[in-house]
Fold each of these.
Amino acid sequence: MIAFANRAAEVAAVAAQHADALDREARFPHETLRALKDARLLSILIPEEFGGESASLADVAEICSLIGQNCASSAMMYAMHNIKVSSLVSHGRDSNWHCDFMQRICEEQLLLASATTEGGIGGDLRNSICAVEIDGDNFKLGKDATVISYGAHADAILVTARRAPDAPSSDQVMAVVLKDQCKLNRTTGWDTLGMRGTCSEGFRLDAEAPAAQILPKPFAEIAAQSMLATSHLLWSAVWFGVANNALARAQNFVRAQAKGRPNVTPPGALRVAEAASMLQLMRANTLDGLRRFARAQADSDELTSVGFAVAMNNIKVGASRLAGEIINHAMLVCGILGYKNDTPFSIGRHMRDVLSAPIMISNDRIFGNMSNLLLIHRLDPHLAS
Amino acid sequence: MIEAIRKLVDEHGRMPVPAASLKPDQDLYAAGLTSFATVQLMLAIEEHFDIEFPERMLNRRSFASLSAIAACFNEIEPARLAS
């Protein structure tokens, strides 16, 4: 089997070809998805026993970063798909239906989407208004899903809802709903500043499916043990890729100036140096998180600890802030050629894409949660963890 | 002990159900305990019993049920008295 990085490089090359077009037209990255399927990269996280490749989250993060260098929307689609796959891998192994479904993902290279946000609860994915209604062997579910990224293009959607019509709003489950088991009626469009290719439209989702498709673990556990960490880590990997490419463009710009006027350091060189230091912080932050996540896989107390939650949240807020700063620097370096959309030094798409980073799960919401956790969590006095 | 914790759960746990209805081994998270309320409950227990939860107890298991909280207390308390 060819190494993940080589297979991902081909996908990244395809994503690069179409990045400007899908940004301009706010359309789904069909070409990237085709390339991901051809490279069989949609199932690498799934254990070998089900037909996957037992890849680590770090392997997936590297691919997210590689694709993110060329097309943030494509990379975010790949990240979001893998966040859903990780929930199946971590929480679906006790259920025959979900084991079979993992096999199907491998065989058919299915794309998974997520319906966690809902009208009336803001962005708080740990509360639902809609509820699963069990009727015999089946369940019914209707959700006002204000955002389902690439929902119209996914083969299956993982939907959160209250466990039963009389359950409290935080007692949630997550169910897999296949494309032919649900009706999607588009309620809102996706004409946005950036991340235009994710097509994160709103839908009224009405589904009916066998109750066996409901994941056996409470969503509270799924959120805490796989979704929160994998989201923050893979998003950070995408943003690292975007920031890296913006800074590489700025570096090329400065290098061209330096060649044009030998012995004179270009004015932008200082900003490139400063941004390179921030990029290193971003890399260290994300890699440390990936290592900590890998360690916690074998230690459920660590995985559910306050310290782990604080660390994963910090990765997200840190990476999203740094990515924005790095890209601002790149824009200052490239000046008018960065501001224009049609030069080798264009930074506009990077900037617009990365402006989504502090608001996809608002950093202020995360700081709010963390300010609560930090009332009890003690800072680790050790440099080495 | 369980009764004292039950009272604190009522006051600080922000549960959708009264703590009197909770069995000692019942899953508090499934019954509606949120992570925000867990922190508030933990602070209230620390204040009420004059103890401090060590970092290693700050995980989901420690607050999974009334008896799990009592078990934490029983582990912390002798160490505190001995010190």
Note: Residues 2-82 of chain B form a domain with the Non-ribosomal Peptide Synthetase Peptidyl Carrier Protein; Chain A fold (CATH 1.10.1200.10).
Amino acid sequence: MAGVGAAEVAALARPGAGPLSRLARAQYAALAAMRWQLLTHGLRSAEGMFELGARGISCLLYALLGVGLGAGLGVIAHSLVLERNWQLLPVLFWLVCFLWQLVPVALASFQQQFDMSGLLRFPVSFSAFCLLYVVFGLGDISTLIGVLCSLGILTGVSVARPDLSAWVVAGLAGLAAVNILLVRVILVWMDRWLARRRTREILSALFVMFLLSLQLLNPALHESRANGERNSEARAAARRTMAEEMKPLLNGVSAVQQWLPPGLAVVEMEAAAEHRPARALAALGALGLYVLATGALLAVRLRAEYRGESLGEVPSQKEAEKESGGWLLNGAGPVAAVMEKELHTLMRSMPLLYMIGAPVFMVIVLGSLFRSSASLPGHPYLLSLPLCVAYALLGPAQMIYNNLGAEGTGIQMLFLSPTPIETVLLAKNLFHALVYGVTALAAGILATLILGRPNGVVLAATVAWLLFALPANLAVGNAFSLAMPHRLNLGRLTRQRGSAASALLTMFIQTTLLGVAAAVFALCLYFGRLWMAVPVFLVLAGAAVFAWLRVLHNSDGVGNGRRDLLMTTLAKAE
Amino acid sequence: METAAIETHGLTRRFGALTAVEDVTLRVARGQFFGFLGPNGAGKSTTIKMLTGLLEPSAGTVEILGQPFWAGALELKRQIGVVPEGMALAGRLTAREYLRFVGRMYGLDRETTNRRTDELLEFMQLAGETRKLVTDFSHGMQKKLALAAAVIHGPRVLFLDEPFEGVDAIAAGMLKTMLQGMIQRGATIFLTTHVLEIVERLCSHVAIIHQGRLVANGSLEELRAGVASSLPGAESSQRLTLEEIFLSIVGAGGQEPAQELSWLA
């Protein structure tokens, strides 16, 4: 060890076993400093300032949503506790859990994820690795909304029964811990399952079976709805019968849910309210076991990642043989080449497929919500189909708004080749239009299965709106893609960099397009001429096509003018 | 006088207050194997980016094959091939799919694209990797694929940024043979690399860039003579290697590190 003094060796912090060892603490400090430096360096550019501003606005919007939900839940919790209605309190807790888990599914591709693989080259202990993984995610949208909802319930219950405050804090903290860990468990396991062909096929088969079961259930549900629409007496009678029939089932569900985390949190509070501390402590202990079990499930996946697991896979032999035989698209030109590349990239990237698939899956949830609340006065049941379809199109819209994001270093190839950027964007637009159409069709079929056959005029107006929304999205998408691209990680769902600015603008444009649709529908309904929406949307579609062609025409100049920034952003090292 | 393959006048690129490349004027004749050298951060990659249309110069002009070259010069782009710094690969395609994609982007017909793809994959020893995605390739394999993509359309001018980095000795030997074959058939090659032995063996002309400025330009013999004349033992010029010439020109020759890293084992 010539030249290496004992003092220098001693200066190296030893890797400790625990997440709070000297080395681990030094690493946390280094990471925090690095993230701070990244933030401050980001502010040197206009894009960085804009991104930070967008992040602030997003947080504010979601915080407002969380505060609103929390206040509502708090008021309901307050009245339920005052009325000693402990049977209904679990509904609130389940609602919080549902939101906590569903928000990341709906927003996974919008949110920034922290790529932990970069830490593996350092002497980071496994426990520190796990802690960092959990802690980093605490700033996400689901935690923000979940915590604000929990605080609302805490306030409501504490005001009604101040003596229960400590127990409520303990119960809600346990439930929050389960939720925080469960969100991450779902994401990392989905990453794992979706990355492998076999598990992906099993999940796809389960999804198809689920759709088939919906199709089988649909006639029965519609028969019940049709009967219910005859008259109010018949509807009331049907409700009573259903309530009687459902009672044993609901009792069973209630008994089972008491053993699940939201139920255990309520059992703990109820026992404390009834001065049965042993039962309350037992429920709290059971909640703790759930925290441990969820943590263990997360640790299994993180252990694999910590060991450097690669989720990459190669195309199947069959696929390889098929591709060596010929081209998918017969045209020899660059348009066909780019479309074929886009298709290959999409089919081999789970994050992209998830980005498209998650909103379609959410149509099931939306459709069910529309169905269950259809009897409320002023309910826009008539417009359920366009709303479901519009929601599902959030997925393809994200691809359209960042249509160069999947290129990575390949962006250089696009600028080196003698193909104009206009042609490249045209090919990408054609491919994305295809994806848009297929997604709209899938969402429409799903919504029809859940909500029943739509009104013919509504269907025609929805198609006309799509003809307007598609070129409008493509026009804005091309402009955004050239102005503020961000690199997509095509391999891992949990390693997206995301862009708050892009997400915020995407949502703004989508909301505007939906707002136009809502305004047109509302005006036409007001005048009792819903069919008028069709020609109005077709005129708007003509204007949108004109705008799209203009943007496409100018894309060559803009793209070449910004090529340095595009390459720096998309080709830079991960 | 025959037009040059590559010609620049006063080529300059500034990034804010930093001038990465300043007033570079050079001429690469057709059929030349041209080595472009410089220490890290000297401006080699920035120059290549400007020569290939990936970066707009702040000042100065670029001519390729006698025509002004800019990002929108699409016909001229058909005449050049590039292995850029980042390799420009599409990670989610197989090697075959990627080469077919590139061929079609350069406007090759289906038959030619397929035939050249097969030949290039065979030549680069990538034909057996039909199932692997590019993202799962080793660094060396990616380099070979990037080189195959750069030549699939038969360019007359080839720009190579560190083409041998990470490539094994056997493949490097084959690549050198391929490049020399291209030169014999009239192509021009503009090469940057830190492996000076390769430049010494392959290139007839060399330019050296240092801190953004061109500090030497000429044939190897001219450079050797120029450096030797400034050394005390001028008669030893024949024995000067390119490494010695390079170190002498960029000013690192004979310097000791300012501080010995005594804590290193």
Note: The first helix of chain B runs from residue 44 to 51.
